[in-house]
Amino acid sequence: MTKSYPQGAGRGSKADKSATTSLHPQGAGRGSKADKSATTTLRAAIVGAGIAGAHCAGQLAAAGWEVDVFDKARGAGGRLSTRRLGQGWATLGSPFISAQRDPFRSVLRDWARKGWLEPVRGDVLQGRATVSWAQAQMQNHYRPTIEPSQLVRQLLGDARLHTGARVAAIQPRAIVLEDGHVFNDFDCVICSVPTPQAIPLLAELPRLRERLSDVRYRPIWSFLMRWEGGPAANVIKFDDELLNLAVRQTSGGSDLWAVHSTHEFAEAYLEASTEEACTRAASALLGLLGLPWPVDVEAAHLWRYALPENPVGSFWLSDRESRVALIGDGIAGAGVERAWESGLRLAQALVQSSEELAA
Ligand SMILES: Cc1cc2nc3c(=O)[nH]c(=O)nc-3n(C[C@H](O)[C@H](O)[C@H](O)COP(=O)(O)OP(=O)(O)OC[C@H]3O[C@@H](n4cnc5c(N)ncnc54)[C@H](O)[C@@H]3O)c2cc1C
Cys bridge to 79: 58, 93, 108, 357, which one at CB 3.0-4.6 A? Predict the structure, then answer.
C-alpha cells in the first residue's frame, strides 16, 4: 500500500512516523476490552477523502479520535480534486462551491477572506452565439482560487490520509484493502464514496446495502479546452442539449476553460472513447461560441457518478450493531454543501455517543 501525507494538512513529519506504526492490521489489535476502557482513544476508519469524508475525519480527529482515511486516488478531493498542468492547475470536477445556509455559508465567507475562494459576480453569460447572449446571475456561488483539493485537505486536520489505498470490502469494525490487507478493531467504519461504488463494498452488510438500492447517479463528461475569442465572460451557461457550462480557469492561462457536458451527452457517450467524446464536444462548442477556428482539448474526464438523483435524504445512515455508517452526497443530497454537512453531522453524532462506543 502506498501512503502519503499532505503537506500543511494533517501531521508534521514526526507524527507521520507514528502514523505508519499505529495502524492495526488483522491480529494486531489494541488488546482487551478492559485495556480499552482505561485508555479510551476511539478509532475510526473512513473510506474516501472527498469533502464529506475529509470533513468528518477532521472533526473526529479534533475531538481526540484516532482517524485513518483511505482513498484510492493519489490525493484528497474526490469530485473537488485538482488537475495539475505544466503551468498551474485546473479543475475538471465541481467548478463552484455554494452555500444555501449556515454553517457552510459562514465557512465559505471565511475561506473567501483567507483568499481561497472568490465570489462569482458578473461576467456570467447565458445562451448561444447563434441566438443571443444574456447576462445571468449566480447567487452565493464561489470559485476556488487555490487548488480545490487543498480546500479538502485542510479539512482533514490531524486525521491520517492513506492514498492509493483502494478499499475492497467493509466489514463490521474493519476494512479490507484491494491488496488483501485487513485493518480492524475500529470503533466505527465510515464509508463516504458515491453509493454505486459503496454497494459492492457492503456485501457483508445487507441491511445498509438495501437502503442504497434506489439512489441513482447521473454522469458528466468534463473537458479542459483552450480557445481564443468568444464572448467576454468567466462563466458561460449554454442553452444546449450537449454542453451545459464553460468556466474560465483561474490558473493555467486566461484562455483555459473547463467545459462540462449535459447529463444527456454523458449518457449518450458513456461507453465512447475519450477521443470520440472530445471530438463531439469540441464541435458542439465551436457552434455554440460561433468560433471559426478549432479549439484545443487538453484533457477529458468522464464522471460516471457526478450528481445523485433521489438520494437517501438523511445526513447519514448507520448500522449500530456493525458500527458502520454512510455519508456523502448520495445519502445527504446533491452538491458540496450537503456532502460537507453530512460529514459534520455524523461526526457530531459520534462524538456525542463516545461513551457508548467506548464501553
Ligand atoms: C463535473 C461536476 C460538476 C459539479 N458541479 C457542482 C456544483 O456546481 N455545485 C455543487 O455543489 N456540487 C457540484 N458537483 C457535485 C460535488 O462535487 C459533489 O456533490 C461533492 O464533491 C461530493 O463529495 P463526496 O465527499 O460526497 O464524494 P467524492 O468527492 O466523490 O469523494 C469520494 C472519494 O471516495 C474515493 N473512493 C471511491 N471508491 C473508493 C474505494 N473503493 N476505496 C477508497 N476510496 C474510494 C474517491 O477517490 C473520492 O476521493 C459537481 C460534480 C461534478 C463531477
Answer: 93
